[in-house]
């Protein structure tokens, strides 16, 4: 059974850093395209970043230079390293599998950026 | 970025009704469009990909159509479980973008 489990969310001060994790089971992260998608409280969905099976990475403009997507093949886990966090990064962060249409999603982890 | 605009933002309907939601793209996205259903506190669920392909396990009362810049999600006969928020998403070009959502409410 395919499963994605995010962790690592929490309360961080503006300017701080945090790393989110997404542990996968039932499939291999490294042979799939994997994304992070976020949803601010009461708002819609926003695609954040993708890592291709070949390792190429892409980001939405608002996080470029601050966020880094990566994976650990030995742990079958996806990561999102977030630096220089801002209040408008506050959201539930989902990891999702797919090369555009996302067929499996995790349950999400909440990041709150506030002083 | 490609802008995705859904209409209506809110839709009130009754069990058994046939409803449609429209999604318009700011430029052609061919058929690279997905539809998702989201319930409060839950992750989105993929319903339709490539504009009209039904995801495995999704009831056949859901259907998608369109190409280019205009797309439609249709639910043929609303069931109680269908009251949720629906999002379209383009994946024609990186910088994937979602519509703002359509909340389907019980009339």
Question: Layout of helices and strands, plus pairs?
Answer:
The complex is a heterodimer of chains A (115) and B (107).
Chain A: E1 3-7, E2 10-12, E3 18-25, E4 34-39, E5 45-51, E6 57-59, E7 67-72, E8 77-82, E9 91-97, E10 104-105, E11 109-113
Parallel strand pairs in A: 2-11
Antiparallel strand pairs in A: 1-3, 3-8, 4-5, 4-9, 5-6, 7-8, 9-10, 9-11
Chain B: E1 4-7, E2 10-13, E3 19-25, E4 33-38, E5 45-49, E6 53-54, E7 62-67, E8 70-75, E9 85-90, E10 97-98, E11 102-106
Parallel strand pairs in B: 2-11
Antiparallel strand pairs in B: 1-3, 3-8, 4-5, 4-9, 5-6, 7-8, 9-10, 9-11
Architecture overview:
The complex is a heterodimer of chains A (115) and B (107). By secondary structure, chain A is mainly β. Helices cover 0% and strands 50% of the residues of chain A. Chain A has no helices and 11 strands. Chain A has strands spanning 3-7, 10-12, 18-25, 34-39, 45-51, 57-59, 67-72, 77-82, 91-97, 104-105, 109-113. Chain A is globular and about 40 Å long. The mean pLDDT of chain A is 98. With 107 residues, chain B is mostly beta strands. Chain B is 0% helix and 50% strand. Chain B has strands at residues 4-7, 10-13, 19-25, 33-38, 45-49, 53-54, 62-67, 70-75, 85-90, 97-98, 102-106. The mean pLDDT of chain B is 97. The chains are: A mainly beta (115), B mainly beta (107). Chains A and B meet through strand 5 of A and strand 4, strand 5 and strand 10 of B.
């Amino acid at each position: 059974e395919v499963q994605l489990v995010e962790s690592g969310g929490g309360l961080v001060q503006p300017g701080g850093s945090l790393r989110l994790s997404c542990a996968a089971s039932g499939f291999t992260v490294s042979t799939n395209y994997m994304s992070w998608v976020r949803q601010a409280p009461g708002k819609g969905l926003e695609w954040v970043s993708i890592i291709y099976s070949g390792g190429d990475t892409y980001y939405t403009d608002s996080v470029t230079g601050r966020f880094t997507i990566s994976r650990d093949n030995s742990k079958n886990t996806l990561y999102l390293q977030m630096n220089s966090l801002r209040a408008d990064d506050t959201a539930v962060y989902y990891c999702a599998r797919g090369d555009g249409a996302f067929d499996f999603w995790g349950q999400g982890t909440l990041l709150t950026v506030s002083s | 970025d490609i802008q995705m605009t859904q209409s209506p933002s809110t839709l009130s309907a009754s069990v058994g009704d046939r409803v449609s939601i429209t999604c318009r793209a700011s430029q052609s996205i061919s058929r690279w469009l997905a539809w998702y259903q989201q319930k409060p506190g839950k992750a989105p669920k993929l319903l339709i990909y490539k504009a009209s392909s039904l995801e495995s396990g999704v009831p056949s009362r859901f259907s998608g159509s369109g190409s280019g810049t205009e797309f439609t999600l249709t639910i043929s006969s609303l069931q109680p479980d269908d009251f949720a928020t629906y999002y379209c998403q383009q994946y024609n070009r990186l910088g994937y973008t979602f519509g703002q959502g359509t909340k389907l409410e019980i009339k």
